[in-house]
Every structure is written in structure tokens, then in C-alpha cells.
Design brief:
- This protein is an all-alpha fold and 220 residues long.
- The protein has 2 domains: 1-61, Homeodomain-like (Arc Repressor Mutant, subunit A, Orthogonal Bundle), CATH 1.10.10; 64-220, Tetracycline Repressor, domain 2 (Orthogonal Bundle).
- It is built from 10 helices and no strands.
- It has helices spanning 3-36, 43-50, 54-60, 64-86, 93-110, 112-120, 125-151, 160-181, 187-201, 206-212.
- Helix 4 (64-86) packs parallel to helix 7 (125-151) and helix 5 packs parallel to helix 8.
- It is elongated.
């Protein structure tokens, strides 16, 4: 083995380990935040659960609050991936929109505990910026779907991009409140009414809405 090879091999080994330590810290922080809350979780408890030294934490994160930035970004990545899976296929745009909104609901439900922690933690500009930028990224495929539906005569938006942002603003906070506090109703009931509201706002005919998103008995 040459000198260059002997130096390169350990470096590659270290590089492979670094993402694992970062992942271990994020996983430990998530578990601690969910179990104890943000304010009751210390950096020392996170590194102990992750099995790394205290100094290692600051190689990846500036602070405990900085962990929330990364965890919130992961929720947004999950939302984007789920929505894009939901709107794939050759079905009409309005049908794919309903599927995509169902996927958004499922992700919010899955991350409900973490979203509660993020809301309860002290808000910061960096955390808010991640959410705003993430909403902008998620608005892109939604706006494209709305534009596609408009071209096919399924939707009649004034502006597909603006409609996408309005829909996302409606859904993310509303669905969390419904799941967490049952306000204005249960999560499923709120999803149905919000979806119908969105379809009406996009100009979908009432009979088509009933077919795509019928009201269950007791949902009125």
C-alpha cells in the first residue's frame, strides 16, 4: 500500500462515520424532545443517548435550537416526497390533488408529536425561514398541478402559484390544530371540509366535488 492509499483509507472511513453521528444526534434529540419536551431536554442528555462526546455535538449543530431547524426541514422533505408520490399518474388533476392532500394529512399526522415540540419551543428566525422556504418548495409541484388542471379545464384559478400558496397556508396549520385539539373538528372531518373548500376555490363543479370528496354521514 502506498502512502497516499494509507492516508485515503482512514479518511474515507471517518467520512462514512460522520453522517452516522449526525443522524444519531438527530434521532436522539427527536426521542428526547418527544419524551421530555424541548425545554426539559439538555444537550448533555442528547449526546449521552447518541453515544457521542459533548464536543461532537458542536461539530454538527450550533445549539439545541439548531437541531429543530434540521428536524423541521426533515418534516418538510417528508411532506414534499409524500405529496409528489400522491400526485403521480395519469388521473385527472383534481383527483390527483385530492390524493396529494391526503398524503399531506398523513405526514402531519405522523409527525404530530414533533410538530407540537416545534410549536412549543422558542421560535427563531432561522426556524421560521426553513418553514417559509420549505412551503415555497412544496408550492412548486402544487402550482404545476393546478396549472395542468387549468389547461385541461378542471380548474379555474386566477394564478396557479398564488393558489398553491393559499392552499398550503390553509392546510398545514389547520390540519395540525384539528389533529391536536380537534379544532375546528376531528382531523379527518377537517381534511374533508378543507379539501372540498379547496376544490370549490379552484372552480371544480359541485357534482365533481361530491364524487371526489363526499361528505360522510355526520360530517356536515
Amino acid at each position: 500500500m502506498t502512502d497516499s492509499q494509507s492516508v485515503a483509507a482512514p479518511r474515507r472511513k471517518r467520512d462514512r462515520g460522520r453522517p452516522d453521528r449526525r443522524r444519531a444526534l438527530l434521532d436522539a434529540a427527536r426521542a428526547r424532545f418527544l419524551a421530555d419536551g424541548f425545554s426539559n431536554t439538555s444537550v448533555s442528555s442528547i449526546v449521552r443517548d447518541a453515544g457521542v462526546a459533548q464536543g461532537t455535538f458542536y461539530l454538527y449543530f450550533k445549539s439545541k435550537e439548531h437541531l429543530l431547524v434540521h428536524l423541521r426541514a426533515e418534516v418538510l422533505e417528508d411532506l414534499l416526497a409524500a405529496f409528489e408520490r400522491g400526485i403521480r399518474g395519469d388521473a385527472p388533476a383534481d383527483e390527483r390533488l385530492v390524493r396529494g392532500l391526503e398524503r399531506i394529512y398523513a405526514v402531519i399526522r405522523r409527525h404530530r408529536g414533533l410538530l407540537r415540540v416545534i410549536r412549543q419551543a422558542t421560535s427563531g428566525d432561522e426556524i421560521d425561514r426553513v418553514w417559509i422556504e420549505g412551503r415555497g418548495v412544496l408550492a412548486e409541484p402544487l402550482a404545476a398541478l393546478i396549472a395542468e388542471g387549468a389547461a385541461a379545464g378542471a380548474f379555474a384559478p386566477d394564478d396557479p402559484k398564488m393558489a398553491a400558496h393559499l392552499l398550503l397556508s390553509l392546510f398545514d396549520d389547520l390540519l395540525f390544530d384539528a389533529l391536536e385539539y380537534r379544532v375546528p373538528a376531528s382531523g379527518r372531518k377537517t381534511l374533508v371540509h378543507a379539501t372540498r373548500f379547496a376544490l370549490r376555490g379552484l372552480g371544480v363543479a359541485p357534482r365533481r366535488i361530491e364524487r371526489l370528496c363526499p361528505l360522510a354521514k355526520g360530517s356536515k
